[in-house]
Every structure is written in C-alpha cells, then in structure tokens.
Design a protein that fits this description.
The chain is α/β, with parallel strands linked by helices. It folds into 2 domains: 1-46, no CATH class; 48-240, 3-Layer(aba) Sandwich (Rossmann fold). It is built from 9 helices and 6 strands, in the order ααβαααβααβαββαβ. The strands form 2 sheets. The chain has a 4-stranded parallel beta sheet with strand order 1-6-5-2, sandwiched between helices. Helix 4 (107-118) crosses helix 7 (145-157). The chain binds zinc ion (2 copies).
Length: 242
C-alpha cells in the first residue's frame, strides 16, 4: 500500500477509535477532571507556560535567559532547548496522565504545546526525532508515548517525523541523580542502523529534567549524521524534580 494511503487508513482508524473512546469514556480535563474537554478553559489559562524570550537558551529553564542555575557549568551535546511549560500542575498532571495512565487523547494537546514552544525552529528543522521509550516501558504501558508525541508534533508542525533512535532496556530515570542519569541514558539510546539523518534535527521528549536523556539522544543523532540538534520538551522539571 503506498505511504499516503497507509497514512489515510491510519488517520481514519485513529479518528474512529477516538470517537469510540469519547463515547465509552467521555473526555475529562487532564488538569482538574472537569467533564467535557481534555483541557478546560481554566486549566488552559493556568498552564505554567515558559516564555522562550525569558528562558535559558541552553536548557529551556524558565527565567534563565540571564544566567541559569539549572544548567550552569554543564555541557550539552545539543545546541539549545525550548520547553512548553514548567513541570507543575496542571501541566505535570497532563504529562503523567498521558504517559502513565494511557490517556492518549492528550497527545494532541501536548503536541500543540510543543509546537508553540518550537516557534521558528520548525522552519529550521529538517526532521523531528522523538526519544523512544524503553522496551520495558512500552511492554508495561502498551504504547510508546514518545513516538506518539513525535508523530503528533510532525502533523502539527509540518516537520517530518523520523524514527532514527532505538532504545535498549534501562533503569527508569526517575529517582536517579544527574551523573547516574547520564550513564544510564548513554547506554540506552542508539541510532537505528541505516536511517539517513539530515543535518538539522529537533530531538523531542515529554519532560526535560537534567537533560541526560536528550543529551544521549543528541549524541546518537550526531553519530548518525546530524550536524546540529536542538531539543524540545513539553515540560521542564527544574531542580531535578520528577
Ligand atoms: Zn481543568
Ligand atoms: Zn539553563
């Protein structure tokens, strides 16, 4: 089946399953559980958005544009980072419901935040590569939230999604310190052999905590042919919280 037909069938199937899900489990706000919509007006207004002009250009932390306590002294392989908002309620709740409770209808909401955070980077980028979830996490959850987010961001932004990274099993990053995260992440992400990676790439993840996972993803993308990688995350968890 040609690619465009495949995409049409996939879109129709996704729309049908969304309709069914809406009938069986009517949408509730991911921020406050109010029935009716996936994100109510109050929670949409309360999202702790990060203004890119005030944020740290290296790690995307809020208010870090003139000196950043989050990433000072640390080297990253990526050239810059932008994040949609702080990992605080109601955004943290949306991210957690999406990933850990399988509320996949939130993928579009999170992808929209990513698109907003990306700004003019979507004109620069030639591909968007999502950080894949570990095989153990995919088995546990039944889906790869990273791949879903990457595909939804591509649909929203027009930057083509590229599945250029593979994940090996690793320890969950939550609860690990910065150096343990870096070691753990580096051993877990590798380029997919034979995938041509263009020079300018956006690496995508749901949460930027220490940057270790996105740094490892960047190193793998540079190894696979990228010349510059910028990173985008839905949420920025500051102070190593998660
Ligand atoms: Zn709400
Ligand atoms: Zn910073």
């Amino acid at each position: 089946m040609p690619g465009s037909d495949q995409r049409r069938v996939a879109r129709a199937a996704a729309a049908a399953s969304r309709t069914l899900a809406d009938l069986l489990w009517p949408p509730r706000c991911g921020g406050c559980d109010l029935p009716g919509r996936l994100l109510c007006e109050k929670c949409a207004a309360a999202l702790p958005r990060i203004d890119v002009t005030d944020a740290c250009p290296r790690c995307g932390a809020p208010d870090g544009s003139r000196g950043c306590a989050e990433c000072g002294g640390r080297d990253f392989a990526f050239a810059g980072a932008r994040c949609g908002g702080s990992f605080e309620p109601p955004l943290s709740r949306l991210v957690t419901l999406h990933k850990d409770a399988g509320e996949l209808r939130l993928t579009a909401v999170l992808a929209h935040l990513l698109r907003t955070a990306a700004g003019d980077w979507t004109d620069w980028a030639q591909a968007a590569v999502a950080v894949p979830a570990s095989p153990a996490a995919v088995r546990r959850r039944g889906f790869d939230h990273g791949a879903l987010l990457g595909a939804a961001f591509a649909a929203e932004s027009g930057v083509p999604a590229l599945e250029a990274l593979s994940a090996r099993s690793r320890q969950d990053q939550r609860g690990l310190g910065a150096s343990a995260r870096a070691r753990n992440a580096r051993s877990a992400i590798a380029p997919v052999p034979g995938v041509a990676v263009p020079p300018r790439v956006l690496a995508i993840d749901d949460v930027f905590t220490t940057g270790a996972t996105l740094d490892a993803a960047t190193s793998a993308l540079l190894e696979a042919g990228a010349r510059e990688v910028r990173v985008l995350a839905v949420a920025r968890a500051c102070g190593g919280r998660l």
